[in-house]
Amino acid sequence: MTSPQVFGPYLTLVVFLVLAIVAAGREFRTAQGLDKAYPLGRVSLAIPIAVFGTEHFTSSQAIVKMIPAFMPVKIFWTYFVGLALIAAALSALFRVRVRLSATLLGIMIFCFVAMIHLPNAIGAPQSRFAWTIVARDTSFSAAALLMAVSSGARQRTPAEKRVAMGALYWIVLTCVFFGVGSLLHPDLVPAVPLTKVTPAWIPFAHFWTILTGIALVIGGGAMLVRKVSRPAAAALGAWVVLLVLTLYLAIMLAQLDIEGLNYFADTLMFGGVLLLASGVYGQAAQLQDTKPLAAQSNR
Question: Which residue, among 224, 227, 223, has the nearest Cα to 236 in the 3D structure?
Answer without folding.
Answer: 223
